[in-house]
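Question (not urgent): is this output format expected?
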Amino acid sequence: MEKEQLKRITFSRFRKMIEEKAGPSDSKPFVGSGFLVTLNAVQGIKKVFESNIPLRFEDMRMGYIKSGEADVIINLIPCHIKKGMLMYISSESIMQINHYSDDFDLEGFTIPNDLLNISLHGNVPSLMTFDMYDVHLIPSEEEITIFKNLLAMLWSVATLLNSDQELVGDMISALIHYYNYLFVKYNKSEDRTKSRERDTFNKFIYLVNRSNGIERQLDYYADKMCLSQRYLGSIIRNVSGITAKEWIDRAAITEIKVLLKHSDKQITQIADQLHFPNYSFFSKFFKRLTGTTPKKYRENN
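Got this back:
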């Protein structure tokens, strides 16, 4: 029987983890028809955090960091998150938690795309129309307070009226539009050139993540984006300080590690799945970037 290749955090799985570690009755998570509001998330998913493996979120998530800090990788990009930060993580995003402090905690809500569209009456902000996308902000204390109050009100209204009430949908809509307002506010200060370059970088990272380690040449992405390789490479380096080829290799290595650790496939099968010409080439590629062979990595993990 094949092992799980990438731990998928579905709505039902997330709900079960949260409910098992629910706190006092006045702060228990509300689980509605397809969405969840929690005022204390970390205790319920601590075991998943400690597993240090990539997680794929099927639903959209939004919330804020109540306390502590953590080092995570979201869609290939390292991120240090800390108290006072607002976060949005789109559906299909891949996240790995490398470390978090003992007092790390967060609260927020999760909702699938179809219910999101219903709550917003089809008027979904452009920020939230893409898979595998994330945004984190550090607004003012007053702005954080507004978000926290809206979230607490959503929890209270949902708990009293249940999730099939129109008012609950309006509360979700208010939270999302408020987050989008903050996103626009804190990003409009960038000049247009930087904004265009950031958009290009985000699209590149999205395509790299979607390739699952199969497409490892820059020309593939340049063609997809209708740009020259030189121009695309220049933008990626300007925005991130890292070459485009390094981002591509990171994605490939992440996928290989997941397959080596979480599947029963033969190493030669993995090499073939990722379109390497032969096992020797695959092994050299992996060793050059990790310092060990695929076989030793599997044995030690």
